[in-house]
Amino acid sequence: MDLSGKNAVIYGGGGGIGSAVAQAFAREGARVFLAGRTPGPLEAVAERIRQAGGTADTALLDATNARAVNEHADDVVAAAGSLDISMNVIQHGDVQGTPMAEMSVADYLRPVATAVETIFLTSQAAARHMMRQRSGVILVFGGSGDPVPGLFLGGLQTAFEAMESMRRQLSSELGSYGIRVLTLRSGGVPETLPENMEGAGEIADAMVRSTMLGRAATLDDVGNVAAFAASDRAASMTAATLNISAGALIDR
């Protein structure tokens, strides 16, 4: 298996993206450590992994708490022997659908602050162990393209840009230790839209229409590409983005 013997931490492991990535990692042989603030979804994902023959552990964790993040990383290494993969896919508390001209500064800045703080803390905690190991993979999710007229992402657009800047910096600083840092860019995954979200159907249709392939990325796509990126099959890849947007986002 591509990830046999690897230990992966997924922050936000109870959510749609986190669940898909965790199950893909476990299917490929990794021991998965799911971290998040809500026990029910974490345990549900862990149980699905166990029923499929995989290994999963859960921990209640606030990714904005530096001490908790570092202690959890230490616990993972103590229990499993290494920390090989780290991915942060927590929710950012963003407000979408409101133009900047009508949005409060607090709503705009919340996802930016959350993304920057938690990417910093989780990547730093992983890097401490990966630098000693002289190996590891840090995955970032959510890079976006240019703003789309009529699609009001609020501060999430700025958060994505900040995350990409951090990924570039981490790649540069950690590469000499054998640590790879990559971003997955999806252009939006319709399956992650809340069913009760106003206009969810129209947004999902817009995601599909924006693609070149006539289909948007699925949760399975995200999980499969994340597993590849974390594996030794992608050993020469770092400081780069994996564009899984079906052509919605154009790399230049």
Automatic annotation (TrEMBL):
Coiled coil: none
Iron-sulfur is among the record's keywords: no
Xref: InterPro entries: NAD(P)-bd_dom_sf, SDR_fam
Top-level division of the source organism's lineage: Bacteria
SUPFAM superfamilies for the chain: NAD(P)-binding Rossmann-fold domains
Sorted UniProt keywords: Oxidoreductase
One Pfam entry name: adh_short_C2
Family: Belongs to the short-chain dehydrogenases/reductases (SDR) family.
Name of the protein this chain belongs to: SDR family oxidoreductase
Native source organism of the sequence: Arthrobacter zhaoxinii
Source taxonomy: Bacteria, Bacillati, Actinomycetota, Actinomycetes, Micrococcales
